[in-house]
Specification:
With about 375 residues, the protein is an alpha/beta fold. It has twelve helices and 15 strands.
């Protein structure tokens, strides 16, 4: 569990020290008081990224130039102290010892978010769905993060060279092997993850939907001929061939058009794409099911480690059947941080601790 949290100059918190309980932690308050900011801080401590913005400087309190997040994560056998400082430079500490690589920091505990912004997993651009896959894959397979960092760096360099006035083919091709090596590893993890998510989604959907409805997902790969059943050994040759065939297109468009960075994940309700035909309510319920499936995978794989659920205002629109199923999952989680404007929302859960959030201050009830 996350036993302690300290914030300094983060969002609307000048300074904050909190101790948390196992089980359900209910964060109560009116809108705009800082409840979601607490979830964002916990998520950032787990994954070094926000679920609301890609710009870390936006997390600083207005007028501040840096922020600090510190937490104590307790398992059955030990307590780990984590701290991160973001300003002109990033500083990461594990048990008060500096670490330089994000991969050495991430993975000390795991966080699954349920937030209104999740609707972008259906309605938004493919980058939202790829980010979702990357986050879940990182929590299930730590080597994934290192491969993703190497791939992203090579891709950025290759694209920069493609945008040159006179592209140097030899220089550009020098990055192809890194893309193939790291990209085929990413793709192997993603294809396996998509298969496991599809299986878990079927089970979750059976709890959320009437028997006659069917919710499914499909991984759409940008490499010709690659399907969810393609053997991992065949991915590198397929990627190599795809890069070669796409070379004229890459030069014309000035970016790399093939690879995991162009893949996508699609949700279907009764065989019809939700992004095109789904109502707002149908899309939100489908995204909730997808996130629940991901949470169950992470909890199953990390039985002896900390998995936190961060839940922000996603239960209000659920019908009785879906709400009961979601609450049953929350009851099985080791620790939950639940945001609400009224205590009645969480009454069936019997929270272990209740916190009143108002204008950047938090009081334990």
């Amino acid at each position: 569990m996350l036993a302690e949290l300290h914030l300094s100059q983060f969002r609307n918190y000048a300074s904050l020290d909190l101790a948390f309980a196992p089980g359900i932690n209910l964060l109560l308050g009116a809108n705009g008081q800082g409840k979601t900011n607490l979830l964002e801080a916990i998520h950032f401590l787990a994954l070094l990224r926000s679920f609301r913005t890609a710009q870390s400087q936006h997390l600083c309190r207005w007028g501040a130039e840096a922020f600090l997040i510190r937490g104590a994560v307790t398992t059955a056998t030990r307590t780990t102290q984590l701290a991160l400082h973001y300003g002109n430079q990033r500083r990461l500490l594990v048990d008060r010892q500096p670490v330089t690589l994000a991969s050495d920091f991430i993975g000390r505990f795991f966080a699954i978010t349920f937030v209104p912004e999740d609707i972008e997993l259906v309605k938004g651009a493919g980058s939202h769905r790829r980010r979702f896959l990357d986050i879940v894959a990182t929590q299930l397979a730590p080597p994934y993060l290192t491969a993703l960092q190497h791939y992203s760096h090579a891709l950025k360099s290759r694209n920069a060279l493609l945008r040159a006035e006179r592209p140097d083919e030899r220089a550009i091709r020098a990055f192809d092997q890194v893309l193939v090596d790291r990209g085929s590893l990413l793709l192997a993890h993603r294809l396996r993850l998509a298969q496991r998510l599809a299986e878990a989604l079927t089970q979750v959907a059976a709890q959320l939907y009437p028997p006659e409805r069917e919710l499914t997902l499909r991984y759409a790969c940008s490499l010709p001929g690659v399907t969810p059943t393609t053997p991992p050994a065949d991915l590198a040759p397929a990627f190599t061939q795809a890069l070669a065939e796409a070379w004229p297109r890459d030069v014309a468009r000035q970016f790399t058009t093939r690879g995991p960075h162009r893949d996508d994940l699609h949700l279907y309700l009764d065989g019809r794409p939700l992004a095109t035909y789904g109502s707002e309510g149908q899309c939100r319920l489908a995204v909730l099911a997808l996130k629940m499936a991901a949470a169950q995978l992470v909890m199953a794989d990390r039985q002896d480690e900390t998995v936190l659920w961060l839940v922000d205002d996603v239960v209000g629109e659920l019908d009785e059947r879906a709400r009961a199923a979601f609450f049953a999952c929350l009851d099985r989680a080791a620790q939950v941080f639940l945001v609400a404007t009224s205590p009645s929302v969480a009454a069936p859960l019997q929270p272990r601790a209740i916190y009143q959030v108002q204008a950047g201050t938090v009081t334990a009830n």
